[in-house]
């Protein structure tokens, strides 16, 4: 029988960006808060300390900081006719674990979505007519508008500390920024990072091709910065060990560098590591949660009673917990009934490497999120009728993680081994640059998450099952952008190139993106969303699930800015409305 | 173009200083062993003699000695693979290994075998040697370079039918582990003397380039350092 802990006001599942920022907000409101983190504790020192963090094999190849599939994974199939198979070793996406979550090992790209993307269904209906949307494409509005969220984007950017250049300041278009972005109330907290030579060349070529390049918004400090919590960042030293690593230099924004040491000062906050939440427990009437049951480091079950439950785990794990706990009806793709698991989406990415034998790029020099992008082909700028697909993206050049085991691009046609391979790595390492695509992924009726009938985790719980494949809309989009990257190659006079863009079924082996989204989406209609516009469960009103699980479809920009804004938006609703009168807010 | 252009001589001095600090920090030296660091002096901890002969011969063809740059044997790649298979990687300790397994699954769904990497090498090597004896009359290690390359090619494309594990899966793992051993930090037993890093111009664990980010199209002048503080 489970041991029972002392009751708290709020229990938070997961101590990454969402959990740590929510804990700051709720403790500030006077609540007693406990966070339960399934992974180990992690601090800049000793966990990310130099020199041992500068280890490509351990962190970037064996995935030391990531979720271990042995402990927790999903099964994957391409369609409902297949038997799903376990994602046995990490490949296409890399969920985090441990204190800091994916916020410890990300690159730090901190974007806002386009305003149009938050009301995508309405935008398409108005602009192109509803008929342009294929029958099985289940696009929805988020249920919250950009203008409502702007103060929360702004606040989150100040907490995180972002280096960038505004392109639209209160409606005024600013030189050097992204002219297509939605209006911002304030400039970025820090000026842009310095650019590596690849980005300088890319920006020049982009201008020649008629685009409007700008520095990417980077949660890597370009100078000394103190955030509203009193946490300090030091300027990035471009160490070249960013994504998949923790920051050795207190420069990459993370829960560790931006939130946790401020949070740990609060007497009404406690966290427990190696505490895997197994289930959210519901009251007999099913309308409220009574707390959560977790397994501690010894595997013993513990019940943590709480008045408020915040699901702040990685997107897939939030959906998994909701399905395991009976929070809302599970989605059935055959009938369209039920909402939990609905609208799983991914991110369509691709990359073209351009080779220049006479240029030294020094690819080991780089931050996580330095580089230059253009947004002329963002979703908000696209004519879907003319293009023949619904979507958009941004392309950029970035120099990050030029480590030779996992990032040594070679021209198409290079042998994979033998004397030819050895000669090629000597000739080409340091003489190539990447043009990277990140683009939208629309949701579909039978792209969804449910519980696997066969495979179980070490606690005996069914694994989460992912049913997902690329559709003609996204494949056409990838080819569109592949051709745009090829134009750069011609403009820049590259000696050779190579590229990877999905052109068939989803390949789970090749790293593409950790931006898995949806499955417990937000909205204003309980028939088609699992949580309401305040990120509150429609069915169990003291459960909130802010995170990428809330996205009805995936926009082209990296998700963390939106996740942070939604967390602060939900926290405001809890503090100013829910606590005084706990009830369904819609 | 840059605010941070600095004298190359200063940078070299800074580089030397940072290495000296590393050495004073008392970091562990590269793993000790009896006698000079050579494959002849190395006693495998996982492989038996026949397996070791195969791995020596196969990695020597995957990254051969001839031409510019070091080969797999000069960089002690077989030692790296041996130690990896004896450790967490060999045991698949991070991977989901519960059945049922479907080895006939589409490769798009990734690793689906029931065996750990250590078991895969143990099973596959004698099967490759058996194939070589049947086809060429000798074990893999005794074949000519041309025949070795032909066998490796047939493994890569799955044209050899190994009985227990798919040949292409075994080849892909062997090739990935060989490249890992070539480029990983020397603390794991390969990339001996950081030769592979020196060859391609990767500075290893230096991890500090504030002065270099704005240096455009300028070769980086410093050699690599390792996590253990060695420099080359």
Describe the structure.
The complex is a heterodimer of chains A (586) and B (232). Chain A has 586 residues and is of the alpha/beta class. Chain A has one domain (3-578): 3-Layer(bba) Sandwich (FAD/NAD(P)-binding domain). Chain A is built from 14 helices and 24 strands. In chain A, the strands form six sheets. In chain A, strands 1, 2, 3, 11, 12, 13, 14 and 24 form an eight-stranded mixed β-sheet that branches. In chain A, strands 8-17-18-19-16-22 form a six-stranded antiparallel β-sheet, with helices on one face. Chain A is globular and about 70 Å long. The two termini of chain A are 37 Å apart. The mean pLDDT of chain A is 98. Chain B is mainly α and 232 residues long. Chain B is built from seven helices and no strands. The radius of gyration of chain B is 21 Å and the shape is globular. Chain B has helices at 8-24, 49-62, 77-86, 117-136, 145-156, 167-183, 195-200. Chain B has two domains: 1-30 and 203-232, no CATH class; 42-200, no CATH class. Chain B is 41% helix and 0% strand. Chains A and B meet through helix 3, strand 5, helix 12 and strand 20 of A and helix 5, helix 6 and helix 7 of B.
Describe the structure in brief.
The complex is a heterodimer of chains A (586) and B (232). Chain A has 586 residues and is of the alpha/beta class.
Topology (SSEs and partners):
The complex is a heterodimer of chains A (586) and B (232).
Chain A: E1 3-4, E2 8-13, H1 17-28, E3 33-36, H2 44-47, H3 56-61, E4 74-77, E5 85-86, H4 102-105, H5 115-118, H6 120-127, H7 146-160, E6 168-169, E7 172-173, H8 197-208, E8 214-215, E9 225-226, E10 232-233, H9 255-263, E11 269-272, E12 276-282, E13 289-295, E14 301-311, H10 315-325, E15 344-345, E16 348-355, E17 372-374, H11 384-387, E18 393-397, H12 419-428, E19 432-439, E20 448-456, E21 462-467, H13 472-492, E22 496-500, E23 517-518, E24 543-544, H14 560-578
Parallel strand pairs in A: 1-14, 2-3, 2-14, 3-11, 4-21, 14-24
Antiparallel strand pairs in A: 4-5, 6-7, 8-17, 9-10, 12-13, 13-14, 15-23, 16-19, 16-22, 17-18, 18-19, 20-21
Helix pairs in contact in A: 1-9, 1-14, 7-14
Chain B: H1 8-24, H2 49-62, H3 77-86, H4 117-136, H5 145-156, H6 167-183, H7 195-200
């Amino acid at each position: 029988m489970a041991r029972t802990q002392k009751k708290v006001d709020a229990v938070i599942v997961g101590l990454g960006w969402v959990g740590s920022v929510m804990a700051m907000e709720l403790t500030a409101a006077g609540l007693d808060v406990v966070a339960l983190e399934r992974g180990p504790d992690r601090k800049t020192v000793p966990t990310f300390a130099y020199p041992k963090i500068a280890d490509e094999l351990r962190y970037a190849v064996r995935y030391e900081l990531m979720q271990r599939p042995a402990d927790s994974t999903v099964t994957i199939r391409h369609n409902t006719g297949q038997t799903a198979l376990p994602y046995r070793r990490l490949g296409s996406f890399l969920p985090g674990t441990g204190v800091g979550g994916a916020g410890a090992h990300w690159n730090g790209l901190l974007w806002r979505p386009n305003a149009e993307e938050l009301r995508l269904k309405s935008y398409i209906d108005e602009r192109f007519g509803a008929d342009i949307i294929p029958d099985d494409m289940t696009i929805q509005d988020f249920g919250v508008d950009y203008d409502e969220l702007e103060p929360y984007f702004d606040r989150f950017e100040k907490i995180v500390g972002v280096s960038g250049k505004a392109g639209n300041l209160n409606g005024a278009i600013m030189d050097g920024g992204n002219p297509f972005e939605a209006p911002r109330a304030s400039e970025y907290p820090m000026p842009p990072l310095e650019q590596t030579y690849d980005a300088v060349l890319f920006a020049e070529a982009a201008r020649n091709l008629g685009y409007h390049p700008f520095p990417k918004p980077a949660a890597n400090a370009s100078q000394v910065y103190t955030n509203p919590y009193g946490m300090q960042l030091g300027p990035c030293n471009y160490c070249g060990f960013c994504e998949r690593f923790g920051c050795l230099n207190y420069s990459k924004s993370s829960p560790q560098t931006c939130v946790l040491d401020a949070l740990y000062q609060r007497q009404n906050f406690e966290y427990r590591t190696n505490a895997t939440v197994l289930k959210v427990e519901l009251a007999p009437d099913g309308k409220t949660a009574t707390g959560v049951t977790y397994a501690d480091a010894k595997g013993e079950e513990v019940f943590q009673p709480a008045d408020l439950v915040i699901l702040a785990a990685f997107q897939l794990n939030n959906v998994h917990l909701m399905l395991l706990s009976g929070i809302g009806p599970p989605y059935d793709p055959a009938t369209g009934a039920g909402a939990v698991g609905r609208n799983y989406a991914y991110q369509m990415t691709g990359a073209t490497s351009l080779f220049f034998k006479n240029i030294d790029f020094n690819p080991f020099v780089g931050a996580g999120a330095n580089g230059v992008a253009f947004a002329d082909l963002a979703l908000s700028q696209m004519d879907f009728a003319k293009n023949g697909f619904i979507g958009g993206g941004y392309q950029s050049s970035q120099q990050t993680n030029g480590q030779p085991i996992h990032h040594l691009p070679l021209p198409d046609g290079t042998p994979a081994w033998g004397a030819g391979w050895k000669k090629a790595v000597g000739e080409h390492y340091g003489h190539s640059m990447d043009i990277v695509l990140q683009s939208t992924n629309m949701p579909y009726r039978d792209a969804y998450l449910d519980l696997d009938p066969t495979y179980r985790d070490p606690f005996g719980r069914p694994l989460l099952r992912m049913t997902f494949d690329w559709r003609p809309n996204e494949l056409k989009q990838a080819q569109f952008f592949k051709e745009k990257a090829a134009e750069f190659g011609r403009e820049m006079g590259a000696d050779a190139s190579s590229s990877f863009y999905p052109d068939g079924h989803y390949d789970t082996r090749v790293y593409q993106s950790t931006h898995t989204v949806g499955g417990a989406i937000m909205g204003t209609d309980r028939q088609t969303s699992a949580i309401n516009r305040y990120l509150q469960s429609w069915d169990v009103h003291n459960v909130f699930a802010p995170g990428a699980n809330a996205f009805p479809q995936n926009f082209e920009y990296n998700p963390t800015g939106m996740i942070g804004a939604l967390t602060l938006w939900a926290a405001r609703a809890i503090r100013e409305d829910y606590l005084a009168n706990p009830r369904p807010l819609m | 173009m840059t605010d941070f252009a600095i004298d190359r001589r200063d940078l070299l001095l800074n580089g030397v200083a940072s290495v000296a600090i590393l050495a004073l920090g008392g970091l562990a030296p590269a793993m000790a062993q009896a006698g000079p660091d050579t494959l002849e002096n190395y006693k495998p901890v996982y492989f038996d003699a026949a397996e070791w002969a195969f791995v020596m011969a196969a990695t020597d063809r995957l990254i051969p000695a001839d031409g510019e740059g070091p080969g797999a044997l000069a960089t002690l790649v077989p030692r790296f693979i041996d130690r990896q298979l004896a450790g967490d990687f060999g045991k698949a300790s991070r991977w989901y290994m519960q059945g049922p397994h479907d080895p006939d699954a589409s490769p798009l769904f990734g690793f689906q075998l029931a065996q750990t990497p250590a078991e895969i090498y143990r099973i596959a090597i004698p099967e490759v040697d058996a194939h070589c004896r049947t086809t060429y009359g000798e074990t893999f290690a005794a074949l000519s370079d041309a025949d070795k390359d032909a066998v490796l090619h047939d493994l890569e494309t799955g044209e050899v039918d190994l009985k227990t594990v798919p040949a292409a899966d075994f080849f892909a793992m062997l090739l990935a582990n060989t490249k890992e051993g070539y480029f990983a930090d020397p603390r794991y037993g390969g990339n001996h003397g950081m030769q592979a890093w020196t060859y391609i111009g990767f500075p290893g664990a230096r991890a500090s380039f504030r002065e270099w980010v704005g240096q455009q199209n300028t070769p980086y002048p410093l050699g690599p350092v390792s996590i253990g503080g060695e420099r080359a």
